[in-house]
């Protein structure tokens, strides 16, 4: 019968204790995450909070020179999507640096949380059954 590797087990316990001890700090940092992006034409700036919700939207008055509601809507959606992706990358970085490597959400058990964090709700909704 093989003897357990007590040093490896102790290292895992130490990693978990360190992670649990840092949870308050990580949570505070996660709540401060924002994402900011500009539309390709530079007329729309979107800022999202830690959960990807829009917290600020700036629209350059030059959009009124050639009113086009569909183009404006597309610019807003693109800027928000980019901002959500940025916030997701920042949040993922905080998660990665706070968790031991073997506990990171990198597809373990078939669930890739990093994909969920980096995707805009509109993209997630495209594959729903009621879209058919």
Give an overview in words.
The chain has 132 residues and is mostly helical. It has a single domain, classed as Ybab, Chain: A (2-Layer Sandwich), CATH 3.30.1310. The protein has helices at 6-21, 23-31, 69-98, 113-118, 121-125, and strands spanning 35-38, 44-48, 54-59. Helix 2 packs antiparallel against helix 3 (69-98). Mean pLDDT is 80; it is low at 107-111.
Helix percent reads 40-55%
The count of β-strands is: 3
CATH level-4 homologous superfamily: Nucleoid-associated protein YbaB-like domain
Alpha-carbon distance between the two ends = 57 Å
Secondary-structure element string: HHEEEHHH
Major β-sheet profile: 3 strands, antiparallel
Strand order of the largest sheet: 1-2-3
Q: How many alpha or pi helices?
A: 5
Q: Using the CA coordinates, give the radius of gyration.
A: 20 Å
Overall geometry comes to elongated
| Average residue pLDDT | 80
Low-pLDDT stretches are 107-111
The CATH class is identified as Alpha Beta
Strand portion: 5-15%
CATH architecture grouping: 2-Layer Sandwich
SS content category? mainly alpha
Q: What would the CATH topology be?
A: Ybab, Chain: A
**Whole-number tally of structural domains:** 1
